[in-house]
């Protein structure tokens, strides 16, 4: 109850500050033709919206095009050299330091943005302040698909936008395609223009990313250990994770000589090269899995039911298999009523091994 009260109270204060920002930075005065996209999401969200950068030729009619992201993910776009310019925000400071927020909005206002698209999947009020408190004339956002998301004055905030886009679309990949179509009626072939695919010096048959950003989205670690043990020893395996996950990666490796680990060694912009060079990727509902979808030919992704269909699965593809245990409680938004995440824990190791063998035979 205390945490819920704090969230609602902060949302209320954020709304008041948003109103104050709109008074001090009046909208609609910019006569320039500058365009801003905002996505304060995590790796997966940014990978999905990277189609904007891959199709940046659509924005040549604008004087300047900007893409605002959390600064800790700038590495993801280190190899991009197109016309879209990155704007970086210290998201933690922007959320909790109101003086930083005011200074940052005044800084962004100097870019004279005429049109802003807030394409963040989840829009807390502090996120809306980035789009609504910078003086732009036209302001667009996606509708909020998170029904249990706590936000004070949500309807009032939405009315401050010029238009709320795609309220009928639930899947984030579909939303990204919709956005591309807004700028061009023709179907655009998305290309990996800001990353040049090349082979790694060491190629692996299988790359496994066994951890997500939230425990509720994880498959049991002992299941991954059994899976690693049951994969044929003539296949090379790389287990990847953060530096903090190093001990758990060593536990999964065990005594298997065909298994290597990489704990925090691969940079975000290098993941695409690593995954492009591997034959099969196995992972969870995570940002790395979104990168794998772009670059690895064959994928197995274990997906829970919390936000089923919002990110995964995306579309039917014989070489990308999404595994889950379907339950009536799907789309609980990870507010699980069981003692364990049955939608994941009831996926058997034998089922995953069978899919691995079938995909490798193709």
Q: Describe it for me?
A:
With 362 residues, the protein is of the alpha/beta class. The protein is built from 14 helices and 12 strands. It has helices at residues 2-24, 43-49, 51-54, 91-96, 98-109, 125-132, 154-158, 172-183, 221-230, 246-253, 268-276, 287-295, 342-345, 349-361, and strands spanning 34-38, 64-70, 84-89, 113-118, 138-142, 163-165, 206-208, 237-241, 259-263, 280-284, 298-302, 320-323. The strands form 2 sheets. The chain has a 6-stranded parallel β-sheet with strand order 3-2-1-4-5-6. Strands 9-8-7-10-11-12 form a 6-stranded parallel β-sheet, sandwiched between helices. Helix 10 links the parallel strand 8 and strand 9 (259-263). Helix 2 runs parallel beside helix 12 (287-295) and helix 9 packs across helix 14 (349-361). The protein is globular, with a radius of gyration of 22 Å. The termini are far apart. The model has no long low-confidence stretch (mean pLDDT 90).
In short:
The protein is α/β, with parallel strands linked by helices.
């Amino acid at each position: 109850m205390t945490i819920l009260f704090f969230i609602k109270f902060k949302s209320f204060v954020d709304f008041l500050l948003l109103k104050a920002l709109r008074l001090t930075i009046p909208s609609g005065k910019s006569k320039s033709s500058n365009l801003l996209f905002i996505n304060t999401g995590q790796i997966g969200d940014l990978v999905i919206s990277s189609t904007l950068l891959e199709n940046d030729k659509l924005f040549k009619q604008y004087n300047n095009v900007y893409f605002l992201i959390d600064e800790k993910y700038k590495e993801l776009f280190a190899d991009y050299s197109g016309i879209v310019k990155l704007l970086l925000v210290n998201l933690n400071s922007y959320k909790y330091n109101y003086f930083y927020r005011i200074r940052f909005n005044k800084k962004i206002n100097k870019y004279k943005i005429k049109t802003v698209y807030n394409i963040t999947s989840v829009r807390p009020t502090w996120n809306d302040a980035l789009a609504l408190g910078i003086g732009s004339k036209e302001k667009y956002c996606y509708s909020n698909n998170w029904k249990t998301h706590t936000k004070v004055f949500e309807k009032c905030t939405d009315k401050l936008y010029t238009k709320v886009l795609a309220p009928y679309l639930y899947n984030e990949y579909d939303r990204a395609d919709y956005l591309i179509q807004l700028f061009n009626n023709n179907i655009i072939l998305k290309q990996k223009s800001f990353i040049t695919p090349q082979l790694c010096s060491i190629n692996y048959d299988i790359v496994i990313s066994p951890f997500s950003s939230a425990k509720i989205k994880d498959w049991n670690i002992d299941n991954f250990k059994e899976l690693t043990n049951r994969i044929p020893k003539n296949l090379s395996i790389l287990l990847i994770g953060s530096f903090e996950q190093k001990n758990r990666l060593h536990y999964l490796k065990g005594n298997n000589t065909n298994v290597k680990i990489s704990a925090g060694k691969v940079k975000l912009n290098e993941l695409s090269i690593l995954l492009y060079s591997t034959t099969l990727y196995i992972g969870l509902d995570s940002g790395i899995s979104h990168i794998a979808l772009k670059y690895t030919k064959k994928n197995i992704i274990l997906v829970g039911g919390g936000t089923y269909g919002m990110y995964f699965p995306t579309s039917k593809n014989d070489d990308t298999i999404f595994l889950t245990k379907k339950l009536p409680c799907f789309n609980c938004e990870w507010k699980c009523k069981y003692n364990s995440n049955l939608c994941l824990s009831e996926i058997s190791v034998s089922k995953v091994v069978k899919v691995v063998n079938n995909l490798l035979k193709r």
